[in-house]
Amino acid sequence: MRPIQVLPSILAADFASLGAEVEAATKAGADQIHVDVMDGHFVPNISFGPALVQAIRPHSMQPFDVHLMVAPVDAWLVPFAAAGADRLTVHVEAGPHLHRTLQAIRGLGKQAGVALTPGTPASAVAPVLDLVDLICVMTVNTGFGGQKFIAAMLPKIAELRAMTAGRVIDIEVDGGVTAHNAGEIAQAGGNLLVAGSSVFKDGPSAYAANVKAIRDAAESARGIRV
Ligand code: DX5
Ligand code: ZN
Questions:
Q1: Could you tell me the sign of the dihedral formed by the alpha carbons of 128, 160, 84, 175, in that order?
Q2: What span, in angstroms and rounded, lies between the C-alpha atoms of 132 and 92?
Q3: Are 103 and 131 in contact (CB under 8 A)?
Q4: Which of 25, 82, 196, 211 has the most other CB atoms within 10 Å of its CB?
Q5: 197 lines ligand 1 (CB under 6 A)
């Protein structure tokens, strides 16, 4: 079984203090930092560019998991890799040349991820399993934080876990993740839990408890802890 990890999404952090927020999330137990890049074209929202990733990179020792909600995406791989991304995740829906894009990410020496919006079936990633380190199952419609978890995605998580059996591929779950649904996500086979609103709530002094609640719910549902 792949380890359970909690990845705070800084989309829900205080943008006026992002460096401090990344430090606080790291200190609170973040296993990786999830960075949501939105282009106002592939998704109906705009967030961060590579300069911001570069600016916050020194504020954490943990890996930066960069979720590119961008189309076309190829021109942005080098800038985000250079800015300090450890993994680049691209959407299967973002263009016809997914295979080439994933090859390019690996060619940059970065981990490669592929993301699926809720309307895309698990089978869409079958042709590229040899090229990915992670599959991101979106459990909200891409573009905004703070939405409600779509529980109908749980069977898709299970299907992808079965499809990737025997491979070193993380199944990331992104959107509406809380301590209340982390257990069923882990049981379905999700092991990387992205959480924005449910981590960055109630001020920095609450972040450690927020991260722990998600981790504990996932690990105990898997039977790792009692
Ligand atoms: C949505 C983003 C998510 C989102 C998670 O397009 O990819 O990472 O910010 O935020 P919450 O946990 O608030 O749904
Ligand atoms: Zn995301």
A1: positive
A2: 12
A3: yes
A4: 25
A5: yes
Confidence band of 225 (pLDDT split at 50, 70, 90): low
CA of 174 to the centre of ligand 1 (A): 6
- Cα separation, 26 vs 162, whole angstroms: 31
Yes or no: say if 70 and 101 are a contact pair by the CB < 8 Å rule: no
DSSP H helical ranges for the chain? 18-27, 50-56, 77-83, 98-107, 154-163, 182-188, 207-222
Q: Would the CB of 8 count as within 6 Å of ligand 1?
A: no
Q: How far is the CA of 167 from the centre of ligand 2 (A)?
A: 23
Vertex 207 angle, CA 115 and 185, to 5°: 40
Distance CA 147, CA 60 (A): 27
In this model, does residue 145 exceed pLDDT 90? yes
Q: What angle do CA 30, 155, 98 make, to 5 degrees?
A: 70
On whether the pTM is more than 0.85, the answer is yes
Which neighbouring-strand residues pair with 37?
Answer: 68
Q: What phi, psi does 116 have (nearest 5°)?
A: -120, 125
Closest CA to 62 of 101, 121, 119, 6: 6
